[in-house]
Design goal:
Blueprint: E1 17-21, E2 42-43, E3 46-47, H1 48-59, E4 63-68, H2 72-80, E5 86-91, H3 98-110, E6 114-119, E7 123-125, H4 131-138, E8 146-152, E9 156-157, E10 165-167, E11 173-175, E12 184-193, H5 207-216, E13 220-224, E14 228-230, H6 238-246
Parallel strand pairs: 1-4, 1-6, 4-5, 8-13, 9-14
Antiparallel strand pairs: 2-3, 6-12, 7-14, 8-12, 10-11
């Protein structure tokens, strides 16, 4: 258990370390990513990755690992100017490792049994408690390999998909069935135990492979986000997100 406290001074966070997944090519964000990595695309004048970093700093997360691949020099230069949280770079310039491979490659830098993982393009507004404190409160080291922050369709902006997951009464996760609708969407934010990564494949692979095993073992859990979440995956989503954020 980390000594880091949440912003409300209540229960300590489950970890003071986070991993930000920022190594993708940003193909859906073209042409804005022709000359810059997606995490540096601006929304309301602020790079996407800074939304995540600011939330981590506010919550009291001391260390963050960021993986880089596409236009890595730009990412490294931008992150070097940051004072908090302390940032270590996980270099994937030799080849993309996807989400699961990226986490596995970064483990020596993460150096924690339990850590937060989040996407670099996540923009969200917290409810009564910040997301990292909410995940920490719900975390059960004995029962969980990962705890995902999910959001309902009503609280997800710019999202037009069918959802990702169902939750049972105990918070255990199951996947949406083909052709059906699921009530919850993955926000890109989770709390992870290194147990999730045991016996992981070599090279590039998706975290979904590990989630499927955890679902079978009854060890993948989720909680519902009490605030708002904005998908910013394409250039067309930026304008509506900026409008929504400036109207708050």
């Amino acid at each position: 258990m980390s000594d880091a406290a949440d912003t409300f001074g209540q229960k300590p966070l489950a970890s003071d370390v986070a991993m930000i997944l920022a190594a993708g090519m940003g193909k859906r964000m073209r042409p804005l990513t022709a000359a810059r990595p997606k995490p540096l695309v601006r929304v309301c004048g602020k790079p996407l990755i800074d939304y995540a970093l600011d939330k981590l700093e506010e919550a009291g997360v001391a260390r963050t690992v960021v993986n880089v691949h596409y236009l890595a020099d730009q990412m490294t230069a931008h992150l070097a100017a940051r004072q908090a949280p302390a940032i270590a770079i996980s270099d994937e310039t030799e080849g993309l490792l996807e989400t699961g491979g990226g986490l596995l490659h970064a483990l020596p830098l993460i150096a924690a049994e339990t850590f937060f993982s989040l996407n670099s393009d996540a923009i969200w507004l917290d409810g009564p408690r910040n997301a990292f404190a909410a995940l920490s409160d719900a975390w059960d080291e004995e029962r969980m390999d990962a705890l995902l922050l999910l959001v309902s369709h009503a609280q997800a902006f710019n999202y037009d998909g069918r959802g990702d997951f169902h939750l049972d009464q105990l918070g255990r996760i199951t996947r949406r069935k083909p052709g059906r609708v699921a009530p919850f969407i993955f926000t890109g934010i989770q709390l992870v135990s290194q147990r999730l990564l045991r016996d992981a494949p070599d090279g590039a692979f998706s975290t979904s492979v590990l989630w499927d095993r955890a679902i079978e073992e009854g060890r993948l859990f989720g909680i519902s986000h009490t605030g708002l979440w904005y998908e910013v995956g394409t250039p067309q989503m930026i304008g509506p997100t900026e409008l929504a954020l400036t109207q708050l």
